[in-house]
Amino acid sequence: MDLKGKLRKGMSIFGHDNREYGRIDRFDDDYVYSGERRIPVSAFERMDSDRLYVGQQGSRYFETAGNMQTQRGGMQTEGEIRVPVMEERLNVGKQAVEMGEVEITKDVETEQVNIPVELRREEVTVNRVDVPDRPIAAGDVDTAFEEGTIRVPVRGEEAIVQKEAVVTGEVVVNREQTSDRQTISDTIRKERVDVDENYARDRASFEEHFAGRRSGLGARADTRTFADAEPNYRAGYAAAHDERFAGRSFEDAEPDLRRTHGQGHSWEELREEVREGWTRARGR
Questions:
Q1: What is this structure's pTM?
Q2: In whole angstroms, what is the distance from residue 59 CA to residue 21 CA?
Q3: Could you tell me if residue 265 is inside a domain?
């Protein structure tokens, strides 16, 4: 069941029998936490309003040592000890880092520029001109016969040089985002739990099952003993407790079991014994 984006703190958790187990204290992508319990998201079968329901297998996450009752072969047994099985998971995140830079260098160059300009100036020509005699004007009497220098300004144009900084172009740097797919590899640890204690309790029933099968094996029954068949019962029993197969039926898990336990043997010879171990471990 896909619960991504649907979980909320405070939602009530119920079992398949409508028994209320508690409320969600916190959660992440893989687990829901209620008190000291951590329940895989995959254990939930449905959601109704603010209620989450675990399946029959999911109810075991709320059982406690001392009051747990597990159905085994039609009998109630008490006092089982729950051993948490842990594993590591690899979480890969992303962060922005500086992977390099583009360096743009600006150099200053000097260049001799020649600009032609036309300048005007006055040129002075002094000429003596004879004129007919005339009386001295009254205004010139006071200055007549005085020595001195007469200055006549000569005007012209000169070039004025100014420098102006102007923008003649631009360098445009474009940055585009691209993505690369990478595979991150690391080593994670998993805990595997032996179920020898429970298996020992059911071992006698497996011997009875094998004895019953021998009567139908004909002449071949003389060549096989329970010691030959026991690894098959044990393999099915262990697989039923394996978290990889949680919530899956035997038929659904059978292809994986066949690849794991059927190497070098005919699967048809092993199947009934593996299935019997699986079925009894799941409480029929």
A1: 0.34
A2: 9
A3: yes
Query: How many distinct structural domains can be found in the chain?
Result: 2
- pLDDT tens-digit readout, 88-145: 878 888 888 887 888 888 888 888 888 898 989 888 888 888 888 888 877 777 777 7
Residue numbers of the domain that contains 273: 193-284
CATH number at residue 26: 2.30.30.240
252 assigned to some structural domain: yes
Q: Which tens digits make up the pLDDT trace of 171-202?
A: 888 888 888 888 888 888 765 555 567 888 88
* 43 found inside a domain: yes
Where a domain ends, among 13, 29, 62? 62
User: What is the spatial distance between Cα 280 and Cα 95, in angstroms, rounded to a whole number?
Assistant: 49
CA distance 84 to 65: 12
Instruction: Give the bridge partners for 54, in sequence order.
Output: 44
Where does the chain show beta strands of DSSP type E? Answer: 12-14, 20-23, 26-27, 31-34, 37-40, 44-48, 51-54, 69-72, 75-78
